[in-house]
């Protein structure tokens, strides 16, 4: 084994196992990941809605072949629509978030919120001012909740509690060593 490569456990919040692999994801990686995952989520959601809709419409049909055809038709109508809409939203979000990062020259928690608000604005800008404003505000509010919950999770679960106690009180809580059971400084 190479001594320069030190192992970093995933429980410490590291995304990569070794220091030299640590880097930020590029715009292309974000774009492909967001668009692909949202498209697939939309297709699965559309199939689910299509099954329910097809079963409802095919309830009164005389044969099972006609009922199955109603389900297939509903799925083929809803799945592409949901997938395409979510894929376009993801594409707009990835582009808007990166644009906000470029214009502000900062990579912080405000960029996803700006990106989501811009996405809502661009997605509904041809539907009139009321729909445009509603989608802009929903995007900003929704991403604010997601960003803040992610930040809270990081603070609560990835950072040891003793560091917060020390920051708040000035008192250092000694930790117990796992291998020897002795207190560490």
Helix amount, in percent?
Answer: 55-70%
Overall geometric form:
elongated
Q: Please tell me the overall pLDDT.
A: 80
Backbone CA Rg: 24 Å
Describe the fold and architecture.
Helices cover 68% and strands 2% of the residues. Helix 3 packs antiparallel against helix 4 (129-158). A two-stranded antiparallel ribbon has the order 1-2. The two termini are 30 Å apart. The protein is built from five helices and two strands.
Give the key terms.
mainly alpha, 185 residues, disordered C terminus
Q: What is the topology?
A:
Layout: H1 27-57, H2 64-104, H3 110-123, H4 129-158, H5 161-169, E1 175-176, E2 183-184
Antiparallel strand pairs: 1-2
Short description:
This protein is an all-alpha fold and 185 residues long. Helices cover 68% and strands 2% of the residues. The protein has 5 helices and 2 strands.
């Amino acid at each position: 084994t190479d001594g320069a490569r030190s192992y970093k456990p995933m429980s410490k919040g590291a995304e990569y196992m070794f220091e030299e692999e640590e880097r930020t994801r590029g715009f292309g990686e974000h774009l492909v990941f967001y668009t692909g995952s949202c498209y697939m989520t939309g297709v699965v959601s559309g199939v689910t809605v299509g099954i329910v809709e097809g079963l409802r419409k095919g309830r009164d049909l005389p044969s099972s072949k006609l009922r199955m055809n109603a389900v297939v038709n509903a799925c083929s109508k809803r799945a592409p629509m949901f997938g395409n809409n979510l894929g376009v939203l993801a594409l707009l979000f990835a582009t808007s978030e990166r644009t906000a990062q470029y214009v502000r020259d900062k990579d912080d928690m405000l960029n996803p919120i700006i990106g989501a608000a811009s996405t809502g604005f661009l997605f509904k800008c041809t539907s009139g001012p009321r729909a445009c404003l509603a989608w802009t505000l929903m995007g900003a509010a929704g991403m604010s909740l997601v960003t803040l919950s992610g930040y809270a999770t990081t603070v609560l679960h990835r950072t040891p509690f003793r560091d917060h106690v020390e920051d708040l009180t000035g008192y250092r809580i000694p930790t117990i060593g796992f291998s020897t059971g002795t207190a560490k400084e």
